[in-house]
Amino acid sequence: xxxxxxxxxxxxxxxxxxxxxxxxxxxxxxxxxxxxxxxxxxxxxxxxxxxxxxxxxxxxxxxxxxxxxxxxxxxxxxxxxxxxxxxxxxxxxxxxxxxxxxxxxxxxxxxxxxxxxxxxxxxxxxxxxxxxxxxxxxxxxxxxxxxxxxxxxxxxxxxxxxxxxxxxxxxxxxxxxxxxxxxxxxxxxxxxxxxxxxxxxxxxxxxxxxxxxxxxxxxxxxxxxxxxxxxxxxxxxxxxxxxxxxxxxxxxxxxxxxxxxxxxxxxxxxxxxxxxxxxxxxxxxxxxxxxxxxxxxxxxxxxxxxxxxxxxxxxxxxxxxxxxxxxxxxxxxxxx
Length: 336
Hints:
By secondary structure, the chain is an alpha/beta fold. The chain contains twelve helices and seven strands. Helix 6 links the parallel strand 2 and strand 3.
């Protein structure tokens, strides 16, 4: 996700200039032109809302272009807290420090995604990651240095564990990923992270016993819990049922659910792959700790609605923001 990483690195250089434009939620850019001139009011939430997100900037552009109705629809995304994905491009410590600093100024909790495991995405749509295990450990330490004891929710390595358990669809074991993840849990937890190890979704690893065993090896006992449905579209009820089966085998461990794009559930049409920028999807439950279930620690928007899943259906590279796709998600979502 190099395009996403470049945007994040630019946004995290300094908070001062952007905070003058967005006093309610802090800022994310050293260059005032990168932040929206008209502040999109953040939704009431514990979690930090980036005032210079891609959605917020698109809202401002559409307002300037006279697309007022579309801008209003896109505010359904721009007003909500969305996780920031952290890779190895740029200075990781500076990047993370900037984000947590802005969130602290706003009195909110940032949500971060550590996404830099070696052979990330098994070399597929979101290929990349650290060059080797030692480089990954360095990355994790740099991220921890950026946290510096500040509270933050951290989603640890989307798909990494599930891909290892399924042998990357025949590509073989991915080294000692469980060991790397377990080390990352301890390091990030020690720096203030509320860490959730990504565990895929109900359609990824269907053997919940196998998944629970993998989570144990990956350090779930030291973590706050595990994460489900990241960048996927399965409905809350299906994910919660699956999560509880896994949790039952982990002593009642809590989990979080990515609800960013699951409002209409999974895509069941003929176009493949079904998980890559499928049509007709909608935004899901807004981020909150109030889930109504003691084992569901939070609903989060981990995937930024509108960010591409990869080069499919004529879409740009993974991580690139697609305004029209984001607009479609917003229009398909009923206002709360």
